[in-house]
Every structure is written in C-alpha cells, then in structure tokens.
Amino acid sequence: xxxxxxxxxxxxxxxxxxxxxxxxxxxxxxxxxxxxxxxxxxxxxxxxxxxxxxxxxxxxxxxxxxxxxxxxxxxxxxxxxxxxxxxxxxxxxxxxxxxxxxxxxxxxxxxxxxxxxxxxxxxxxxxxxxxxxxxxxxxxxxxxxxxxxxxxxxxxxxxxxxxxxxxxxxxxxxxxxxxxxxxxxxxxxxxxxxxxxxxxxxxxxxxxxxxxxxxxxxxxxxxxxxxxxxxxxxxxxxxxxxxxxxxxxxxxxxxxxxxxxxxxxxxxxxxxxxxxxxxxxxxxxxxxxxxxxxxxx
Length: 297
Known about the structure:
Blueprint: H1 8-20, H2 23-30, H3 34-48, E1 53-55, E2 60-62, H4 64-87, E3 96-102, H5 104-109, H6 111-121, E4 125-131, H7 138-141, E5 145-149, E6 158-171, H8 173-179, H9 185-189, E7 196-197, E8 207-211, E9 214-218, E10 226-227, H10 231-238, E11 244-247, H11 248-257, E12 261-263, E13 271-278, H12 286-295
Parallel strand pairs: 3-4, 3-5, 7-10
Antiparallel strand pairs: 1-2, 5-13, 6-11, 6-12, 6-13, 8-9
C-alpha cells in the first residue's frame, strides 16, 4: 500500500505560489526553482483531475476549483501547525521559534532587558526579531506578536499593555547657545523643529504637550521632516539641528551626559502607551505564551 499523503510537498508548493503571487517568489521562499514548483503543481492537478491555476507569461490566477482546494489546504496546514504548537514545551523544556515585530524606540531601549532573562532561561527558543517602524500584518506576514505604540484601534487582536512612556522636548547645548532657549509656545514656533513623519499616514506626528494643565497636541512647524526611523530626530537634535520630542527613556542617558538639554520642562507630563498584540484566534506555542507572561508589567 502506497503512502496516502506523499503529495504534501506539491500541496505546499501550490499554497505558497498563491500566497506569494508568482512562481518565482514562491521558489525563493521555498529555496527551490520555478521549474520544480511548476512540475509540482502539474502533478497535483493530475492527481486531482482538475485545473487549479491558469498560468500565462504575465499572469497567474486561481480557478474556482483551485480556490476551494486552497481553502481546505490552508485549513489542513493550520491544523498541523496547531498540533505542533500544542506539544511544544510538553517535555518540560521550551523550544521552537517566536517571531516578533517591535518599533525602533522600544526595540533598541526597552525590549533587550526584557528579552535577555527569557532567553537565558529558555536557551532552545529562537527569537526572530524585526525592529522597524512599519506596522506589520501579524496574520498575513506570519508574526506571532508585535509591540505597538499609541492607543490601539479595534482590530480584533488581543492586547497586553506594557506601560506608558513619558515624552520630553530636547535640544543640544550648542543649538540653544546659537538659537536661544524658548520660553513658551510662541518662542518654540520660531525654532528649528524636528517632527517625525508617521509611516502609517505620511503625516507629521504632533508633539504631546501639557500647557497650563491642559493636554495640547501641537503641530510643530517643520524645519526638517524625518521619516522611517523615529530615532533620527534624536540624532539630528544631538547634532545641533534643532528641537525634537522623544521618549524620556531614549533621552535620559544623553541628558545625564550633557549631549542633550531638556527644553520647556514645564510643558512635559504627557506619555504614550506601548502594547503587546497577538492574534487571539491562533493557538500559541508554549514558548509564545511564556514570553507573553514574561513581558507583562
């Protein structure tokens, strides 16, 4: 009697081609060649007796039968993945991999001391960490969890609040010697301000101020707009380019060392929250659950 499921590699090839959009992209993802994947799909179609995909030199589309098969195949692979997650760590020692996305501020300053004791305790767990200011799609891109800044929209994702981070205005001593120290909002508006462009909207991020006991979201007039890496505004400010707003945990060491000076401390007192998010419907591995527990405040 032959093996009942000896065609699973062909099914994986079909699913990956559809997910990646092209045979070439799927070949890169699976570490093989387009011709190997083309033959795999042809074998699968011959086995099923239906056409799964229409392929031309410029376009690839899934047939009605292919769409139905794709849904069932994804469901089957999902069950296998769930089974693997369910048994990971059953032997007492956690193993497996965890894929995390974190913004640059948290990834550089707050996450390392939180991850280190977890990794020391669980040496067989592999952490795949992406540090960027891009909001990844957890489900589509295969992330187990992500750290997000700000108030969360109702996305259907589970969330754990990691804490709030105070913000402050800073500039270099050299800049303040040249341009003077602002004493109020009118003075601040006349200075070289260094706001950050939000990657999600392309708009400038407002500065969070507390003026006369009231919370004010102030749009800084931009002398320079910094995009992609929010830590860039701190670098520019430290080099005497102007005034920026950043998290106090980012500026603290530079403030103590004298590379930066706090500006308008009377306007401080605002903060932004950081949260850990993850898909609630996904059965998480024991390693993922343990990491979530360790990251709770």
